[in-house]
Amino acid sequence: MNVFVCMNAIPTERLQALGHLEIIKRLAAAGADGIEIRKELLTAEDSLEELGALCRKLNLVAYYSAPEFLFASNHQLNERGFKRLIGEAQELGAVLLKVPLGSYHIKETNMRYVNELLSENWANEGLAITIENDQTPGGGNLQAITDFLGRSAALDTPIGMTFDTGNWLYTGEEPLLAARELAEYVSYVHLKQVKRVNEGWVTEPVAVPLLPEVNELLEKFNRNCPVAIEFPITLENAATYISLMKIEQEVSHERA
Fold first, then answer.
1. Which residues have a Cβ under 8 Å from the Cβ of 99 and sit 6 or more positions away?
2. What is the pLDDT at residue 249?
3. Cβ distance 193 to 206 under 8 Å?
4. pTM of the model
5. What is the pLDDT of residue 157?
6. Which domain does 32 fall in, by range?
7. pLDDT of residue 223
8. Residue ranges, the chain, pLDDT below 70
9. Overall number of domains in the chain
10. CATH number, position 110
11. How many Cβ atoms are within 10 Å of 9's Cβ, its own excluded?
12. Burial 58-88, CB ≥16 within 10 A → b, else e
């Protein structure tokens, strides 16, 4: 099982002090198989081309994440923004682009146009497209996501799912139920543990060994599905978490 590290798992102050290039080198040395570059963390000094070249040099797989919705407030494809993100992902040399669903509407969204656009422009570009359940009422709604992915599959639209284990709790959904419903579409997993604090949720490091309910969740997905650390880690304990997660998942899938 491949373990990725999301750049937002690294403390912001360390990322700002050391820069993306140095962080990537240290995560490679810690044993990461891939890196998720987050658009919202990039600065004017960061070059996607340079980051991608470093990842390739270090044998790291690069994924690209952007907080820009796939569907705009009018429930239709955010075509201009999406095309821009495709270009950025290709500049990085990413093999996967992850975006939140946004304002998808079961009745009003023109899925045939979405299919045409994706199939014509990017089906053969080697870039996988996934939507992620985010922390918004629309983008984290299990019914909407299930409907969207079901309709996408029926139309052979080349789009899959990034499954965030913690975000479901923000939108009042049950993660295990979501995993059962969506497992066939999932090609990438964000692993995090969230805790209720007053009126909100806080992300915290996962327990190691992984809790039984976490293993039960991860067992729903294909064993070749990469799992990303999206909980707080430090550069000092990154290698420990990466190693333990690999061992845990091998044992978990052997049991399954």
1. 65, 66, 67, 68, 69, 70, 82, 85, 129, 130, 131, 132
2. 65
3. yes
4. 0.94
5. 86
6. 3-255
7. 87
8. 120-125, 249-256
9. 1
10. 3.20.20.150
11. 25
12. eebbbbbbbeebbbbeebbbbeebbeebbeb
